[in-house]
């Protein structure tokens, strides 16, 4: 689908009330495939697209920005004449969901924000300096393929090896799907690390503008701190909070059945 100057890969499936699915950074739609299929089976019309540099959508020149991504998201909804939608977003997709619900509250009926953060300080490995090399290293390790099978200890106490399977899976998806070719993945990752260390900068008080029913969902071993997820939920009027046990930032793959149940029951409660 042509949105502005970009040709975005999209998928639309099912019928019923519309729901927008927003993927995470260095992810494709494959990462949320199980959740999307479950929502379609549950009687929803699920719309999803891949942002520039992700999945089947070609990259664009320059750095990434949540503001630019939000403008593209709003244009996507306009192109489909969607005045009101439910939104399920993971990681970067959760951030975009929060921004959309804040900036255009009438447009978001309900929001499930999975493992999102308001700023760099929300990460469990964050240190004082926003461009700290250690933090950038951990961000890179969490999404890029492991260079080896060694279990290098991360600053949050977990091991790099424990996150390697999902990093490898997403890199394989990138290598297989990207029109830019496998080698460009390193370019995308460098731009994402810059994005994650500099953005977003969402003030918690600004979330009071959100009127949508909201579920903040994260994991007990998430790279986003549990108290940061609590802060997000407490800043949104009436928001609910779910912390999934025994899971990491990749909670949608760690506990897919539980996450699907939480999403389904939350959406049904509206």
UniProtKB/TrEMBL annotation:
Keywords: Hydrolase. One of its GO terms (molecular function) is hydrolase activity. The keyword Hydrolase applies. Residues 141-182 are annotated as: Disordered. Residues 19-259 form the AB hydrolase-1 domain. Residues 167-178 have a biased composition (Basic and acidic residues). The keyword Hydrolase applies. Residues 144-164 have a biased composition (Low complexity). InterPro entries: AB_hydrolase (IPR050471), AB_hydrolase_1 (IPR000073), AB_hydrolase_fold (IPR029058). It comes from the Bacteria. This is Alpha/beta hydrolase. The lineage of its organism: Bacteria, Bacillati, Actinomycetota, Actinomycetes, Micrococcales.
């Amino acid at each position: 689908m042509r949105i502005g100057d970009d040709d975005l890969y999209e998928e639309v499936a099912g019928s019923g009330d519309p729901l927008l699915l927003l993927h995470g950074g260095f992810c494709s739609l494959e990462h949320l495939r199980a959740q999307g299929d479950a929502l379609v089976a549950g009687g929803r019309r699920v719309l999803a697209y891949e942002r520039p540099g992700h999945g089947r959508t070609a990259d664009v020149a320059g750095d990434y920005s949540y503001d630019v991504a939000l403008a593209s998201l709003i244009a996507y909804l306009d192109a489909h004449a969607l005045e009101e939608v439910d939104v399920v977003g993971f990681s970067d997709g959760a951030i975009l969901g929060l921004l959309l619900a804040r900036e255009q509250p009438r447009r978001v009926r309900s929001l499930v924000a999975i493992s999102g953060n308001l700023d760099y300080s929300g990460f469990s490995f964050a240190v004082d300096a926003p461009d700290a090399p250690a933090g950038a290293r951990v961000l890179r390790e969490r999404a890029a393929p492991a260079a080896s099978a060694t279990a290098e200890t991360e600053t949050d106490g977990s091991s790099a090896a424990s996150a390697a399977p999902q990093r490898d899976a997403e890199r394989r998806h990138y290598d297989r799907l990207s029109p830019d070719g496998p080698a460009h993945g390193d370019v995308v990752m460098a731009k994402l690390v810059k994005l994650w260390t500099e953005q977003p900068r969402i003030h918690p008080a600004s979330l009071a503008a959100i009127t949508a029913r909201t579920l903040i969902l994260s994991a007990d071993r998430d790279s986003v701190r549990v108290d940061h997820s609590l802060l997000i939920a407490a800043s949104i009027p009436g928001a609910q909070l779910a912390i999934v046990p025994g899971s990491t930032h990749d909670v949608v793959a760690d506990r897919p059945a539980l996450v699907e149940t939480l999403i389904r029951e939350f959406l049904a409660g509206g």
